[in-house]
Amino acid sequence: MQIEATLRALGDQTRLRIMRLLGTMELAIGELAQVLGQSQPRVSQHVAKLCDAGLAERHREGSWVFLRQTIGIDCPSPMGETLARFLAIAEREDAAFGALCEADRKKLAAIREARESSAEEYFTRHADDWDELRRLHSPDRLVEERLIAALGDERLGKLLDIGTGTGRMAELFAPKADHIVALDKSLDMLRVARAKLQHLPAESVELVQGDFSDLPFATHRFDTVLLHQVLHFAHSPAAALAEAARVTRPGGVIAIIDFDAHEREELRERHAHARLGFTDAQIETLLSEAGFAPAPPQSLEGGELIVKIWLGSRLDIPFSQTERRSAR
Question: pTM (2 decimals)?
Fold first, then answer.
């Protein structure tokens, strides 16, 4: 981040307003245009200058482009942290600017309502399928309670929720995590998750489109990795866990919540399950070959489909060795 480019980018009232909005939540270009009362091309020009200066970054979800700020209290750059504090002070001290920012944030209510309405519409379309599956396994509340207990009282650090779905796991563990990345391949599910998670501080959570077989993250980035009801969609569970291992730091924890092995073949067609659950031996082998030390599994009875919780700790093994193992 270069100071001259940074100050030039901030030398415009609209761009200052955009930065304060992005400090509240991630927003699409069209959503920013709606709040600011400006055309999308004009807002895009402002956004380009902020991104060029390293103050914000774009990420694409289908045909939508979302913006997030790259400065904040937890920013690794001292300049980024200082700029975030400066903008907050400016809003408090400059009455006119503060009034503009407050008016902008009030307009975010319409954005939130539109997201929630879209999520509700999606739920309504798929409610029957999900209700059918829920009736087959332990209550969600019980699963959540046991998972919270399994992960213990320690802070979860940087957490990756692979296949976030509705965003429920990210929401559940947000108080215990320093930062959460919620990843899903489905654009529809990301929009549902965005509606659920939009009340969380913008700097504490980010949503990313991606596939568990090719995670778009640097090696050893995360302290905790969750795969909640995700692994049974993997045609190659070994490849998915190898990728999870790659992005987990040595000593980090992986939690797999999925079905015990079963014979409900209809789930392949009705719910696109690639795997009919897993045995303890299968998961132990998969974790070991990916470079994790498996912990004893936990079983949750209470339904035709038994839910299991499998934990593993990332070993300090060079990834090239882990990669060779998972390829066998």
Answer: 0.77
